Amino acid sequence: MSSSMNVFAKLTTGYDESLSRSGVSGMRMAERLSELSEIGKTTEGGVNRPGFSFEEKQAKQLVMSWMEEAGLAVTVDGAGNVIGRMAGVTEGKAICSGSHVDSVPNGGNFDGPLGVIAALEVAEAWKETGIQPEKPYEVIIFSDEEGSRFGAGLTGSHAMAGHLEEKNPSELKDFDGKSFETVMDEYGSSLEAVWEAKRDMSEIELFVELHIEQGKLLEKNGLSVGAVKGIAGPVWMNVTFEGEAGHAGNTPMDDRRDSLVAASHFIHAIASLPRKFSDTAVATIGKLNVYPNGINVIPQKVELTVDIRDIHKDKRDALVESIIGAAQVSASVHNVEVECQQTLTVDPLLIPEKLLSDMKESIEQFGMEPMELMSGAGHDSMVLGREVPAAMLFVQSKKGISHNPEEWTDLNDCVLAVHVLKAFIEKQMTV
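The line above is the sequence of Zn-dependent hydrolase; the predicted structure tokens follow.
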């Protein structure tokens, strides 16, 4: 049995068929999640679909075919963002929903794709029940949300919202040393076309994103869906310590400029910094490269990344400055040089009270407790939310596992979430 069949079989085992109603089909969602799991699949059952890769493009093309089958008019902008549009009874501002299909290395099958498939399932449900929405409706797939290729994510939403200057894409290089411009040429676009992807945001009335929780709160409370009240804004930073290589046996301990010792001092210091600024602040060092990386060579250079997040912008920014200061102290103490470069800065987003209230009402409509949640992860809705009203729904994640082949969300929870999303969008159609 193929991994695709395994995903389909696992999703549909124990599925409550009564949830497939009002045009929403759990089996269709299971089939589509399974088909996407085949693109860039890994031996562990996860996926590798870096931003602007062949695999990401293939996944987009598959969803585009589904969009066309559903009667949506499909366009692709210069940043590779896919937009499937369903005409409304009246023309005007569109209500939009969607997510992404790229992944982290060996990522899961729900982070991103579930939001895309859920948004499309709303359109499918209207088609099957013969309903044309009151306002135009768009399903959007954003490019390179995860940032695993260039170390700076949310590329597609930044381009669409006109925030590309914050990323300095012309300076980015991927994991193979290719420039962003080269990658875009290979992808079938260009650096210039990415800049031209800026959209007139007055065309959008609202963007709502459905996403797996990537945490355990919904599962612990026995809930399928929750309403997000705020999204923490991330700052990504590259930190480079530069010392001096030397022989491990012939260089005395008191005469070394060891970049790894300095980096270790810095890493230890960071562990205690966030709680000094905010109860919700976090900082993570998830990537580290040592050069020349020899067993008997004193490390000359260490490159590492720092991921800093909080829902409070002022406290997060103060934490960033403190972390830069800690890097400088570590470099000084161990007689090495240090450079800190921010590669991503996104403001936190608080969901408007009216939209939060409408989401909670839509959850209650299906007999569930309307739990409010915070998102510690960054999302495309956070970027668009700086320009247009934005909302976000979370779906239960088993054991809170994400960015991992073990990532899982039950089909019952997926379908209930689509019903809530559809009810919420229909509520906005009448406003």
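Note on the example: Residues 57 and 431 are 36 Å apart (CA to CA). The chain has two domains: 3-232+348-429, 234-345.
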